[in-house]
Amino acid sequence: MPFNQDENKKDKLANTTFISEKIKQRPINRKKLLRRTIITISLAVIFGIVACFTFLLLQPVFSDKLYPEKEPDVISFPEESASDELTPEEMVAVENEIAASEAQSLEANQKDQIDQAIASYTFNSTDYGKMMASLKVLATDANRSIVKVTAISSDSNWFNSSYQSSGSTSGLIVADNGNNYYILAPYEKLKDAESIGITFCNSITVEAQLKLVDTITNLCVLSVKKAALSLDTRNSIIAATLGSSNTSSITGLPVIAVGSPIGIQGSISYGIITSEKTTIDLPDSTYKLLTSDIQGSSEGSGVLINLYGQVVGIIDMTKVPSDLSGNICAIGITELKTLIENLSNGKNRAYLGIHGTTVPEEIQTKQNVPAGAYITLTETGSPAMKAGIQSGDIITFIDDTEITSYELLINKLASLSPDDVISITVMRQAPTDYVEMKLEATLSGATHD
Hints:
Thrombin, subunit H; single chain; six-stranded antiparallel barrel
């Protein structure tokens, strides 16, 4: 019986079929995988580029919404007061009056002692050294407002290899509107520049943007963003204090020339104003020429400051009379203030194109000449010439504004803009009398970007 059971088991095992399966991996389609990989990478690149451009385009919008930039202040200079026009001699006179009233309360013997002490004092070299040191302190402080303006352009040398050529001049920080510093500089050396660099008193250099150029004075205003400057630089520099060149007599007053009066940046010279009676012969202006006894370079630039550290003139050696070729000359700051305001605020200057003077009261009375602005010259191709204004005409009205002097005419033009159409009333001399004429002029611009 056990034998039969074993046999049966063997038969069953013999009749059983064992099935075994071998699982094989599906073959990889390498071309398809490569194609999908390339498509995925391409889509990722395209998505990245789109996201990048979207961010660049929308980031300023979001920034403006979330962090709005402070509205910049309008550049303006305070009106000159009577105190601005007091000369040191006038101040001394006032001080003498005060001293005289105080001296009345002193006993006679005390006054005599004071007078004797003053009379017996001898001015020596030590005093001279102290005086010059105090002037040096003024000049050093003024240099915080002076910058070196460098024009850089790409040219080719004899071997056609690129190199950098540059010219430089001195500029003046004239204003700070909260967002930008504005710098007044001569434009002559900058007109062919591809980029303009500003080097501050702490030797830090940044790039500046040209704001506006005045074609009459050939001065320009540059701007530098405050955000581009470190806190240390912003603390090192300061906008200049503009004084007055319109005192009753600035002639004979001491001044300091800073910037590059001898053609070298950082040079300093001392002297006095020798004359301020000459008006520079430029169209649509009454700029005053300040001459000095300071010897300088024909390439000199910078400013003249008074003993209070205030700027009284912008050095301009292109306006030097031929017989004063070695002396520093400057344009008076008082007459330039309106122009500096307009250039800093981006306001284009209107251009009529006339030279003139005020008809003196004596001539009006004795020769029966009308009061107004006497025209000595009209610029060729100017709006004035196109309107028919001639030498010898006397302008008495612009629109409804009465013109009784050439200065009033210039002030009126300063309030106008390019493309304004104005009515000009002129008195033109006839064989027996003056004849009134109505002319119309379309103003053009005297500034450009």
